[in-house]
Write a structure and sequence with these properties.
155 residues; alpha+beta; 60s Ribosomal Protein L30, Chain: A; 7 strands; globular
Length: 155
């Protein structure tokens, strides 16, 4: 399974970064039983926040979807750091997507599709998940998007 995942990532031109270290007083992940809880991931690229500002005023929909994709890539990087092998992911249970939104912006669901589509394309059926897409007044470090995840772990 991990070979297939690696092949999909390569075909999509995605190279997983080194998992980001926490920016405050928390751990990047917690394993409890057969569940992996991943802390919120920001749209980091090359060690910095790639997309900042409010979606709907500072950030357009396409850039916000790219931010969500970057969050998903960082979710996979954290999962690989936690598990050693992405093939151990039995199922993505839930993604919680947070979008820094300008007043009146109501397309958070379309923004988080950037992450949902990437996760489903990389993990196949195991990547189909429940989710939330929520508008926020602001996010840490002025990030446009933040996403956390709950994954089921197999052996």
């Amino acid at each position: 399974m991990s070979e297939t995942i690696d092949n999909r990532l390569e075909a999509m031109g995605i190279r997983l970064p080194v998992a980001a270290a926490p920016a405050a007083n928390y751990v990047p992940y917690v394993i409890s039983g057969n569940l992996l809880y991943l802390s919120g991931q920001l749209p980091m690229e090359d060690g910095k926040i790639a997309v900042t500002g409010l979606v709907g005023s500072d950030v357009d929909l396409a850039a916000a979807q790219r931010a969500a994709e970057l969050c998903a890539i960082n979710i996979l990087a954290q999962a690989k750091a936690a598990l050693g092998d992405l093939g151990r992911i039995a199922r993505v249970i839930k993604l919680n997507g947070f979008v820094a939104s300008a007043p009146g912006f109501t397309e958070q669901h379309l923004v988080i599709n950037g992450a949902s589509n990437l996760i489903a394309n990389v993990l196949g059926d195991a990547g189909k998940h429940a989710r939330a897409a929520v508008g926020m007044a602001a996010l840490p470090l002025n990030a446009a998007v933040e996403i956390d995840a709950i994954l089921e772990i197999g052996q």
